[in-house]
Amino acid sequence: MTLDHLPEVMAIDSQCYPIPWSREVYESELARTDDRLYVIARPDKVVGHAGVAFEADEAHITTVTVAPDHRGQGIGARLLLALALAARRHNTSLALEVEADNPSAQSLYRRFGLAPVGIQRGYYADMGLSPDAVVMRADNIHQSDYADRLVKIAVELDYA
């Protein structure tokens, strides 16, 4: 993702979130090239985006968003695969928060080996979403069994 993609990224966010990230937040995140990675899905236009923050031993997924009219096509999985592969190079665990009432996103994250480890009450209260978040994580992502999981997902996506 570059600054040039922000109009399309923010248009998607405005469809998906009551209170989307501001341009300033994106600019700040994109400027942190040493400890952040943001990617886009763009067959002909931007249809999804995702980001990860690399912290100590943990890679923390900051966002995975797919335009509503492009969901169900494996775009979220492809974005998450890119983040998981990058995380394996830097970290030993992968973590995120997801809306407690978003079972489809939780299912996608479970496919990548993330398991619920707790509930963060009121996490989304100021963002216009249902307030609680499920905290999910996958540990030991640097090990070969996690690499095998990612290869299997990549093969499945190639045939989707």
Notes on the structure:
By secondary structure, this protein is an alpha+beta fold. It has helices at residues 6-16, 23-31, 75-90, 103-111, 144-158, and strands spanning 36-41, 48-55, 58-66, 93-99, 115-120, 133-139. The protein has a six-stranded mixed β-sheet, sandwiched between helices. A hairpin with a 6-residue loop joins strand 1 and strand 2 (48-55). The longest helix is centred in the middle third of the chain and has 16 residues, at 75-90. The chain starts with 5 loop residues before the first helix and ends with a helix.
Helix content: 25-40%
Structural class: alpha+beta
Number of DSSP helices?
A: 5
Q: What distance separates the N and C termini? A: 24 Å
Average pLDDT score: 94
Strand order of the largest sheet: 1-2-3-4-6-5
Strand content: 25-35%
Poorly predicted runs of 5 or more residues: none
C-alpha Rg (nearest Å): 15 Å
Largest sheet: 6 strands, mixed
Q: What's the count of strands?
A: 6
Strand/helix succession: HHEEEHEHEEH
Q: Which shape, going by the Cα principal axes?
A: globular
Summarize the structure.
The chain is an alpha+beta fold and 160 residues long.
